[in-house]
Amino acid sequence: MTDQVTPDYWDEACKYLTRRDRVMKRLIPQFGTACLQSRGDAFTTLARSIIGQQISVKAAQTVWDRFAALPRRMTPGNVLKLKVDDMQAAGLSARKIEYLVDLSLHFDSGAIHVDSWRGMQDEEIIAELIGIRGIGRWTAEMFLIFHLLRPNVLPLDDVGLISGISRNYFSGDPVSRSEAREVAAAWNPYCSVATWYIWRSLDPLPVAY
C-alpha cells in the first residue's frame, strides 16, 4: 500500500449511518467526499505511532523526518542496525528507542503475523499488537482503523471520540463509557466510519497515520 487506499464500504456505510442516526445525518453531508485513507506499510505506521506518543503532531513529524532519514529504507532489519546515539540525536527518548527496537524484533522474527491479519478478527490482531512494548489498546485500535481500514472499531479510550459524543449527543455534558457505547449501538457495523465523522466534527482536517 504505497498510495492512499480508500475503504470500499464507505458510501454504503454513510447511507446506513444517515438512516440510523440523527447526528450522522447532519454531520456526514458537511464533509463531502472526504473519507478515511490508509497509507504506508504496517511497520512504518506502527513506528510512527510510537514516535508520536505524548508529543504534539508537529514535534512528532519533525522527529519522524529525522529518524526516517537514518536507515536507507524503513525496514525492521535496517532499524535494528541503527546506532542508539544516532537515534537519540534524531530526538528519540531512550524509552521510545526501546519500543522501536522491540517493534523491529517482532516484525523481523516473524512473531507478528502480518500476512494472516486479513483473515483474523479485530480482537485477535489487537492481542498480537499489544504484545509489543509501547503499543497499547488505543494504538492497536488506531492501527485497525487507519491501516487495516476495519469498519467496526469503537475506540472508547480515545479522548476525541468521547468529547465528540459529549458535544454532539449530550450538549457538552460529561459522558461515561457505557453512555458512549449506547450511542454507538446505532453505528454498528460501521463504528469506525461514525468515529471518523465524530473526529471531523471536532477538527475538520482528516487525520492519516
From TrEMBL:
GO terms for biological process: base-excision repair, AP site formation; DNA alkylation repair. Its EC number is 3.2.2.21. Residues 51-203 form the HhH-GPD domain. The keyword DNA damage applies. InterPro entries: Alkylbase_DNA_Glycosylase/TA, DNA_glycosylase, HhH-GPD_domain. The keyword 4Fe-4S does not apply. It catalyses: Hydrolysis of alkylated DNA, releasing 3-methyladenine, 3-methylguanine, 7-methylguanine and 7-methyladenine. GO terms for cellular component: cytoplasm; protein-DNA complex. Keywords: DNA damage, DNA repair. It comes from the Bacteria. GO terms for molecular function: alkylated DNA binding; DNA-3-methyladenine glycosylase activity; DNA-7-methylguanine glycosylase activity. Belongs to the alkylbase DNA glycosidase AlkA family. This is DNA-3-methyladenine glycosylase II.
